[in-house]
Design goal:
single chain; Jelly Rolls; Immunoglobulin-like; TIM Barrel; eight-stranded parallel barrel; six-stranded antiparallel sheet; binds alpha-D-glucopyranuronic acid
């Protein structure tokens, strides 16, 4: 990419079209390189960060400045890398300094890469685990690519821009809430900003493996392997699964190849999460993955795992941490799974956006099933083609990243979206996109109910495999009669999951009866909900809202003070409330048979 820089040094003061040079080079699912299973050079650690509320750096082209110290400047500047704050990457700026807590704007991250060239035809790809919401990447003073979507990975090729020795890498990240984004202006979680997931540099051969997917076929007697290369060439790849004595070659045409081979792997399940080491090779490149083989399907109103009915006892969880914000470390993930296990859960709903890549990887090992989703949440500009492209791309990047994770059984395409024709077209497109990219998993969304007929009824449901229903009867409504009516009136033709139900409780607030925001009422509410849910003959799961209290600026009573308090555990991720025990004691219905 080259920038047209006008001669007038003050051109930027009046050029509101300053972003135009940075519109090309959009990193999408088509340019994503799944780096899982590869050796990469980590670029995590200390970076310099300069806040930029006005996009001043884009207007003045800070990326194009040389590295001269102030003593050598001929005229004054407004940006000096060395004056930037030293911050860790990954991190969210909101939790680094009190004055940055509510910052919604842009920030320039800068670090240096000492580059020693490899073989002449070697390729170099920068990998980003996630940046909220948008990112522009600059290397050695040149703009090389951008990404939109706050929770999905992206790749930017750096081959042509790295020079031997020191290279300056700059990433401009901005977390503004905008009407054309997903999510849009208004959502019930905290708007963290920053380069909050890992950054890496991968050295790749001239033609490399961009994606691999390895999945059990619905008959559970064959495995399908798909490979996509970086370039549209013909050739041959191969797949090897030692533990299955399986080795097969894959013909590649125009950069794509697929085979279906007979195989009888031990099936992955929560009880026995068997994983296999899989290697896929092409020329000098290889991708190594640990993969579990299982099938998910529906049959009438039943959910089937490996052909058998399953009931999902679940809990929802956000990426939110008092100290780390949206950064989720491996320890944080293992703690949430430990708590889910203590509750007797076999399922988690990863609300409301793609979580860190290691979540599904660890769930594969632990035998937990997951609902992963994109933040098509509440009001979205459903009539905007650019918004649909953004949401579709976020979903595609999520699916490509996690395609080999046995734990993920459901792709969620949205949450509680008012029913309009534009919304229906938008979300039906997402559901179709998920099916096209991954026919092996189920699709769902938190759908609406028909308030006139008081039934589980949403035009979108016909485009989904599983109907998600968020319902808070007894919390946002004074009693449970609505839930009784809804369950009695509805006769869905496919499985229903109560994808959210919960009540706020401030830890330590105790008292009998419907004492709002008390631990006792949260526990009583949950027991009343679960009794009704278990009695239904078509509900096949519940995801209690939610595991931990989390930051939300919408919540400002004395009980909440900027937090949503529906957690079964407090925001410290240790202090359990009465409802935790109530849910731990509850036994879900036996799958496949009505609970009498
Ligand atoms: C909604 C929404 C959640 C929200 C919850 C609540 O169902 O999906 O994101 O946090 O209700 O009101 O607590």
């Amino acid at each position: 990419m080259t920038d047209e820089t006008p001669d007038d040094p003050f051109h930027h003061l009046h050029d509101e079209d300053y972003a135009r040079p940075y519109l090309a080079g959009l990193a999408t699912a088509q340019t994503l390189v799944t780096l899982a299973g590869r050796k990469v050079e980590s670029l995590d650690g200390e970076w310099r960060m300069t806040l930029d509320l006005f996009d001043e750096g884009l207007r003045q082209k800070w990326h194009a400045l040389d590295d001269a110290p102030p003593s050598q400047w001929a005229v004054p500047r407004d940006y000096d890398i060395e004056a930037g704050e030293r911050v860790p990457v990954p991190s969210c700026w909101n939790v680094l300094k009190p004055e940055w807590t509510h910052f919604e704007g842009g920030a320039w991250y800068t670090r240096w890469i000492d580059w020693t060239p490899g073989p002449t035809d070697e390729r170099a790809v920068l990998g980003f685990g996630g940046a909220n919401y948008a990112a522009l990447v600059f290397l050695t003073g040149t703009y090389i690519g951008r990404h939109v979507g706050g929770s999905t990975p992206f790749s930017v090729e750096a081959t042509a821009h790295l020079k031997p020795g020191r290279n300056r890498l700059q990433v401009f990240v901005e977390n503004r809430r905008r009407s054309d984004r997903a999510p849009m202006h208004h959502f019930d979680w905290f708007n963290y900003g920053g380069l909050y997931r890992e950054v890496s540099l991968a050295r790749l051969p001239p033609v490399f493996i961009r994606h691999v997917s390895v999945a059990l076929m619905p008959d559970r007697r064959r495995i399908r392997v798909d490979i996509a290369l970086s370039d549209a060439i013909d050739g041959e790849a191969d797949v090897e699964i030692d533990a299955l004595a399986l080795k097969a070659s894959i013909e590649v045409h125009a950069g794509r190849g697929a085979i279906i081979v007979d195989a009888a792997p031990e099936l992955w399940s929560p009880e026995r999460p068997r994983l296999y080491d899989v290697v896929v090779r092409h020329a000098d490149d290889a991708v190594r993955e640990r993969i579990g083989f299982r099938t998910v399907a529906t049959q009438g109103t039943d959910l089937l795992l490996n052909g058998r009915p399953v009931w999902l006892k679940g809990v929802c969880v956000h990426e939110d941490d008092l100290a780390l914000g949206k950064v989720s470390t491996e320890a944080d993930v293992r703690r949430r799974f430990r708590h889910a296990r203590e509750l007797g859960c076999n399922f988690l709903r990863l609300a409301h956006y793609p979580h860190h890549e290691h979540v599904a990887r660890i769930a594969d090992e632990e035998g937990l099933m997951l609902w992963a989703e994109v933040p098509v949440y509440w009001a979205i500009d459903f009539a905007n083609p650019a918004t649909l492209a953004d949401a579709r791309n976020q979903l595609s990047e999520l699916i490509l990243r996690d395609i080999n994770r046995a734990s993920i059984v459901i792709w969620g395409v949205g949450n509680e979206n008012a029913d309009t024709d534009a919304r229906l077209a938008f979300m039906a497109d997402l559901a179709a996109t998920a099916k096209r990219l991954d026919p092996s998993r189920l699709t769902s969304a938190a759908c609406l109910i028909n308030r006139d007929r008081f039934t589980i009824e949403d035009r979108l449901a016909g485009h989904l495999d599983v109907i998600g229903v968020n319902e808070y009867f007894g919390w946002y409504e004074p009693d449970f009669s609505g839930l009784d009516r809804l369950l009695a009136n509805s006769s869905p033709d496919r499985p229903v999951i109560v994808s959210e139900t919960g009540a706020d409780a401030a830890h330590g607030r105790r008292g009998a009866g419907r004492l709002l925001f008390s631990e006792d009422w949260q526990a009583d509410f949950l027991e009343a909900q679960l009794t009704r849910i278990a009695a239904s003959d078509y509900v096949r799961g519940v995801a209690v809202w939610l595991l931990y209290d989390f930051r939300s600026e919408r919540r400002q009573t004395g009980f909440q003070r900027g937090f949503n308090r529906k957690g079964l555990i407090g925001a410290d991720k240790e202090t359990k409330k009465q409802a935790f025990d109530a849910y731990r004691r509850w036994r879900p219905p036996t799958a496949g048979r009505r609970q009498d």
